[in-house]
Specification:
heterotrimer, A mainly alpha (325), B mainly alpha (443), C alpha/beta (634), A: 325 residues, mainly alpha, globular, C: 634 residues, alpha/beta, 8-stranded mixed beta sheet, 24% strand
């Protein structure tokens, strides 16, 4: 099993390099730094000097891959590729357009992102599984049918409306919590509670429906019939046999998103004014801060790959057929 | 008048042609015919299909583009590109107010300083203008027009019902009742709205006084295009690479797997954000490529479809690879190998027809997700061109209005209702299609 | 006084009745076998007794009285006390019938807890020991995937015994198992039944199993019982025409020179509306009344009860309905020779995925096949027989060894010379292609009509799709596809093992006809000894990748010298005669990844000595055709 994990880890490396190359190509080959400068400084009234200054500030004035003018190892390191892409592996993301260190900023913003994302993940999982279990327990009745219809209706509503509706109803009509903002420490709770509820509601439709299908598929297996033939009660069959087997695909499917929780949710954070990584990304997109977007792409991919790795591990732990072989 | 065929129009027509052609083909292949018949026998399926067809009809009208000839001797054409839908809705398009007005209102939403009479709600230029000074008749007029419209809707439905008789006779086992019931609701709603739209802004007006109903109808095309063209763009690559990886195995499989794992590990929103930002630079740097603003917006729409396609083909590709791996071990494939049939022929005759249901299901399942994604992306600012009318841009502008007191709710409500109906119909239809095509579907 | 009294039990699925008015009794300690082909409703009957029918099915009418209690009137809570408590049940697929993520011990403990109230580890271990699982304390902590198929079925039996049931329902308990393991499990079931005085309801399609296990037999056809009889009377003279045909269709009942009696057509599909006798359309002795009136029950002095219009029971089993076929002339043209054929699959482990060992699926196989002859390759699952077939055909590149076709070295595919017929009639035809296109796949200019006629189908079937055909018809289509390219060699990989006995007979007859007419050579891969006896000229017995004994049919089947062959033959449940003292091979076959040193069979062999541990025995030649790889070929 250790060998398996090492192999997976080694496999992650070329993928991360691939991501890096794709990002590099997207940011520096599709457009030249000159184009980007002109775009940001305004197409019309821009002087070559201004462009040059803009490039030097960001380190875009160097050659792409090979610096013939430099000497020794600098030939390779004094380039855009090395400075902007290779350095990412050392978690050096450079500075944002406002001059702040991106890595530091990311560190600061991780907390608020997690404060929203972790409760969303845990509660969302719990709510969806409970709802699906309820539907499965009453399967093939009108309750089940109505539940599925509700799920389909809920997943047909754009996430935007959940947020707008939640803010309007809870904050504007009922005045229960502030409409947006964030605070450190325990006072954060009153800012977090609404985004969490809204996110859980927005996600429950599709996940509950999906879990229901997994449970129902499990119900058709032979071992369920065996459990019934033993004289076990329907509840016992559901919770001890069906749930335990269905949890393997459900949990391992969920593990992959755990690292991505750091990224927070773009929409939720932007709407509720939570100073996390999601709103950081949105702000960067709106300000066309290429450095920040590039850093977030890299971190997002690294976290996703970490998620895949965790999924593999959780699979081997959860399923004795893999654990013991 | 000069016809303009935007790239997205061409692709949309191509898509419809492909859909019609594959429909004809499907009617000749037994298992496809049987599966589609199952879809047609489902009440939900027929009702959802009717709704979707209505949306497609609007989008189709909105895809017939032209530029008007300007008056004068010289052959000059207007800069604006209009569509057949614009022509049909000329009234709605041109009757703009100054700013916000509530649905069916006669007065503006905001007080203004009027000449000499202090601040008050000014009368609208168009909304309820036919009433003149007789404002007391406002409500009865609305009721009157609505009833008239419902009547016209009923007549239109009766005509359609009679025209549909041969269809019902040709395929009596399909759930026509559901289709025509949906059509009745549609006709009544459309009739009432059309009648009221003669004198009022049925769904109110937005900040710059544009009719919200007009904006909503124009949004449909954008949503449908994103939902369908994206799949069309990614489909060939996903199918080809998926089958190839599964059947060839070895290093080819490794390369393809590496490709989609790498693309898949970049979070979708971020990849889209990065790509859209870069594409925006390209478009901005080359204004000479586009003759009109419409072409420019169209280019951005297509680019968005392509980017969404790149981020979403990996799922289908992996699915097809897995299925091909399974099929490759089946005995009929081995029998074909033993008969010396070539690999390409095995792929096209034995593997492809047996994975088509997965492709089919993926297309319909992806549609609703893409429509929803468009709204979010446009909202974040990495979606369609801000000048393109879409649900996302509508919600984006409408969100600011929520903070007003009293609230401007109608733009959001209109976008919500239309999107909800479209996505719900698509989801329900997708479910029916999956049940009909997937041999392993759990009921 | 009967323990179980079933009256007029009817199960409905939609408008159809897959079980229609079944009545029978079961006395304490007695074994009653429900015998029938697939789809006859025997399994649904068993599930209905337990009230465990699938969601779509329901009990429409009838009564099930168990020790005086009416089970059909019980509430779910009452039924739970019956299930696993007073009635235990075991199923066909031990592989999927156990929960994969729970230890075997925990699953047995669950049953104990449900019925005895408490579950201590000792009782779990005692139950596992009672079903003959070695090292039960350790096995209780293992998961199902760590056990062999036979072991899993034993664990299932232990679970069913946990509630000390008065009745055990066994639904095809050994169908998924190899024949030597089947013999072990059947012996275990009989022994347990004797010790505990349990009654048993045995559901099976296998007349051999019935002969070995049952006290009384009920034959089911299309949802109804058609004959209920005591064992001895039934095997002496089956009374219903369907029962008689079932006997006559057994390949053991005829030799090569005869044709098997077949039942024309196939089982009527679910939902057929019947008038008169359900078997009338396929019956050889049909009367006009059979088509209009449902037959009454008749009772004979022998104790047999039969649902048939025929007044008298013909006492002889008719064999050879089609007359005899002449033995083909002895022409020994060697078509195919394989020498020292090996197929090894690497086992990859570690960070770099290096091959750390090999699964020796085929480990040095020699065989020869002559024109117009049939060589049967016999062995249990996992012995490598299918891999031999694929390696010879060219679908699986061999690791080592030489192949000669017509005396010339050959490798890869030879589509025009060799073709294959596969096991699964549902997996071997592309569901998206019409029959005509399937048949013409290898040769687009093939004469589809005459090919279809040749395999007993009609030309108009070419326009239809595979799903419209029954299993037997699909197998005919697969044979036509192979014949289209005009091969001389047909590799048949268990072509009849997925088919019912009556349909199997049709296919076997077809294969012998084709051999006579076209002079085909068959490499017939099978685990079914009865089929071998009927079809083959020569036999090769495989064990763990090697051929342990070869010879003519008579030499191997009636004069077996290798202890494995003898054990294999003895393990086959036979319908004639009482169960004799058997040579039971203990244990499971070892893994081909890690075969035992010396003779692969020695850990299970009753004759093994120190010599057998040392080296694999060389071939001992017993006659010109008969050879065996054993140190003690007596």
């Amino acid at each position: 099993m250790l060998a398996y994990l090492i192999r997976r880890l080694l496999y992650a490396l070329p993928i991360l390099i691939g991501v890096n190359v794709i990002t590099f190509a997207l940011f520096f080959i599709v457009n030249t730094p000159d184009d980007m400068a002109r775009m940001q400084l305004g197409v019309k009234r821009v002087t070559p000097e201004a462009i040059e200054k803009w490039k030097v500030e960001r380190g875009y004035d160097k050659p792409l891959f090979w610096n013939g003018a430099a000497s020794g190892t600098d030939k390779a390191t004094e380039t855009i590729f090395f400075g902007k892409s290779v350095r990412m592996f050392m978690l050096d993301f450079g500075r944002a357009d406002d001059g702040r260190d991106i890595a530091r900023e990311i560190g600061l913003r991780m907390g608020p992102s997690l404060a929203v994302a972790v409760p969303v993940f845990v509660l969302g999982m719990f709510a969806a599984i409970s709802f699906a279990l309820l539907l499965v327990y009453f399967r093939a009745t009108y309750l089940d049918f109505a539940g599925v219809v509700l799920c389909v209706a809920m997943m047909s509503i754009s996430g935007l409306f959940y947020i707008i509706g939640g803010q309007w109803l809870v904050s504007k009509v009922w005045h229960l919590v502030p409409i947006s903002g964030y605070a450190e420490g325990l006072t954060a709770a009153k800012f977090i509670i609404l985004p969490v509820i809204v996110s859980v509601l927005a996600g429950i439709g599709s996940s509950a429906r999906w879990y229901r299908t997994i449970f129902l598929e499990e119900y058709t297996k032979d071992y369920v019939r065996t459990a019934r033939a033993k004289g076990l009660s329907e509840r016992f069959v559901l919770f001890r046999h069906v749930l335990r087997n269905a949890l393997i695909p459900i949990l391992t499917g969920a593990v992959v998103v755990i690292p991505a929780l750091f990224m927070g949710s773009l929409l939720i954070e932007a709407f509720f004014g939570i100073p996390g990584l999601g709103s950081y990304t949105i702000d960067a997109i709106n300000a066309q801060d290429f450095g920040v977007v590039r850093a977030m792409v890299f971190i997002g991919s690294a976290l996703y790959i970490l998620g895949l790795l965790l999924t593999d591990i959780s699979y081997t732990l959860a399923d004795p057929r893999i654990r013991l072989q | 008048m000069k016809f303009v065929v935007l790239w997205s129009d061409a692709l949309f027509f191509l898509l419809l042609a492909v859909a019609v052609a594959s429909g004809i083909w499907a009617s000749r292949v037994e298992h496809l015919r049987l599966s589609w018949r199952k879809v047609g026998q489902s009440q939900v399926g027929m009702a959802a299909a009717t709704l979707l067809l209505a949306f497609v009809a609007v989008a189709l009208l909105d895809s017939l583009h032209y530029r008007e000839r300007l008056p004068g001797d010289k052959e000059t054409y207007a800069v604006e590109v209009r569509s057949a839908l614009d022509a049909l809705l000329t009234g709605l398009r041109t009757r703009t107010e100054k700013t916000y007005s509530a649905p069916l209102a006669t007065h503006s939403f905001a007080k203004e300083t009027l000449d000499g009479e202090g601040r008050d709600f000014p009368r609208l230029k168009h909304g309820g203008a036919h009433l003149g000074e007789n404002l007391a008749a406002h409500e009865t007029d609305i009721a009157h027009k609505a009833v008239q419209g419902l009547g016209m809707g009923l007549v239109a439905w009766l005509v359609l019902w009679l025209l549909g008789a041969p269809l019902r006779r040709a395929a009596p086992h399909l759930a026509w009742s559901a289709a025509f019931a949906t059509l009745l609701v549609l006709c009544l709603a459309a009739g009432a709205v059309a009648a009221l739209a003669q004198g009022y802004h049925v769904l109110g007006t937005d900040k710059v006084g544009q009719d919200v109903l007009y904006l909503t109808l124009k949004s449909i095309r954008t949503g449908l295009l994103i939902g369908t063209l994206t799949t069309l763009i990614m489909l060939p690559a996903a199918v080809f690479l998926g089958l190839l990886a599964g059947y060839a195995g070895g290093w080819i499989d490794d390369v393809i797997q590496y490709l989609y794992t790498t693309l898949n590990s970049i979070p979708g929103v971020l990849l889209i954000a990065a790509a859209v930002l870069m594409m925006q630079v390209v478009i901005d740097m080359h204004p000479e490529w586009f003759a009109t603003a419409a072409e420019r917006a169209d280019a951005r729409l297509l680019a968005l479809c392509a980017i969404l396609g790149i981020t979403s083909w990996t799922g289908l590709c992996r699915l097809l690879r897995g299925e091909t791996l399974k099929l490759r071990e089946l005995e009929y494939v081995q029998a074909a190998q033993a008969l010396g049939v070539s690999g390409l022929r095995i792929l096209s005759r034995h593997i492809l027809p047996n994975v088509m249901h997965i492709v089919m299901i993926a297309i319909v399942m992806d549609f609703s997700g893409l429509v929803l994604a468009e709204a979010v992306l446009s909202y974040v600012g990495i979606g369609v061109d801000p000048n393109t009318i879409s649900f996302g841009t509508m919600i984006n502008t409408a969100r600011m209005e929520l903070a007003r007191e009293p609230m401007v709710w109608w733009s959001l409500a209109a976008a919500f209702v239309f999107m909800f109906v479209l996505v719900l119909a698509a989801n329900l239809f997708a479910d029916v299609v999956r049940d009909a095509f997937d041999p392993r579907a759990v009921k | 006084m009967s323990l179980l009294k079933v009256r007029d039990l009817t199960v409905g699925i939609g408008a159809a009745q897959p079980v229609d008015g079944v009545s029978f009794d079961l006395a304490p300690g007695e074994t009653f076998a429900l015998l029938g082909e697939s789809g006859c409703g025997k399994s649904l009957t068993a599930l209905a007794l337990m009230r465990l029918l699938p969601a779509a099915a329901r009990i429409e009418r009838g009564s099930v009285r168990f020790a005086g209690d009416e089970l059909c009137g019980f509430t779910e809570a009452q039924m739970r006390a019956v299930r696993g408590g007073r009635i235990g049940m075991i199923f066909q697929e031990p592989g999927t019938s156990l929960n994969p993520v729970m230890t075997v011990g925990a699953q047995i403990a669950e049953a104990l807890k449900a019925h005895a109230g408490k579950a201590d580890a000792e009782r779990v271990v005692a139950l596992l020991a009672a079903v003959g699982i070695p090292d039960p304390a350790r096995r209780a902590t293992e998961y199902p995937f760590q056990m062999s198929g036979g072991m899993k079925q034993r664990a299932m039996i232990a679970m069913a015994l946990a509630g000390e049931p008065e009745l055990l329902i066994a639904d095809e308990p050994t169908t998924a198992l190899d024949v030597t393991i089947q013999a072990q499990v059947l012996d275990l079931l009989r022994e347990l039944q004797r010790q505990r005085g349990m009654a048993m309801l045995l559901i099976t399609h296998d007349l051999g199993v019935v002969a070995k296990m049952a006290d009384r037999i009920g034959v089911m056809y299309a949802g109804q019982l058609v004959e209920v009889a005591p064992r001895d009377a039934f095997f002496a003279a089956p009374a219903h025409p369907y029962s008689r045909r079932l006997f006559a269709a057994l390949p053991e009942m005829a030799t090569r020179q005869q044709r098997l009696a077949t039942i024309p057509g196939s089982v009527p599909p679910l939902g057929t509306a019947f008038r008169g006798c359900r078997f009338a359309d396929r019956c050889g002795e049909v009367l006009s009344v059979c088509r209009t009136q449902a037959p009454p029950w008749r009772e004979y002095a022998s104790g047999q009860r039969v649902r048939c219009h025929l007044e008298t029971v013909s006492q002889t089993v008719k064999v050879g309905a089609g007359g005899t076929a002449p033995e083909p002339e002895e022409t020994v043209t060697l078509l195919l020779e394989a020498h020292d054929l090996k197929v090894h699959f690497p086992i990859r482990r570690g960070v770099l995925q290096r091959a750390v060992g090999h699964v020796r699926a085929v480990d040095g196989v020699d065989l020869q096949l002559a024109a117009g002859r049939t060589l049967a390759l016999v062995g249990e699952s996992g012995c490598g027989k299918t891999t031999v077939g694929k390696a010879i055909l060219g679908l699986q590149p061999p690791t080592a060894g030489t192949l000669k076709l017509d005396g010339k070295p050959h490798s890869g595919l030879a589509p025009a010379r060799m073709q294959m017929v596969f096991q699964d009639p549902f997996g071997s035809l592309n569901p998206r292609m019409r029959v005509g296109a399937i048949v013409a796949e290898g040769r687009p200019d093939a004469d589809v009509d005459s090919l279809l006629l040749q395999v007993g189908l009609t030309p108009e079937m070419a326009g239809r799709y595979p799903h419209e055909f029954s299993g037997g018809q699909r197998q005919r289509i697969a044979i036509a596809r192979a014949l289209a390219v005009g091969p001389q060699i047909l590799i048949c990989d268990e072509p009849t093992s997925a088919l019912d006995v009556s349909v199997q007979a049709q296919i076997l007859n077809l294969l012998t006809d084709l051999q006579e007419r076209l002079g085909l050579a068959y490499l017939f891969i099978t685990h079914n000894i009865g089929v071998v006896d009927f079809l083959a000229h020569e036999v090769a017995v495989m064990y763990l990748g090697r051929i342990v004994e070869r010879g003519t049919v008579d030499e191997v089947l009636r004069g077996a010298r290798h202890p494995y062959t003898q054990a294999l033959l003895a393990a086959v449940p036979r319908i004639e005669g009482a169960a004799s003292e058997r040579l039971l091979v203990p244990g499971d076959p070892p893994s081909p990844a890690n075969p035992p040193a010396g003779c692969h069979f020695h850990p299970r062999c009753p004759r093994a000595t120190a010599r057998c541990h040392g080296a694999y025995p060389e071939t001992a030649v017993l006659s010109a055709t008969h050879s065996v790889r054993c140190y003690f070929p007596d």
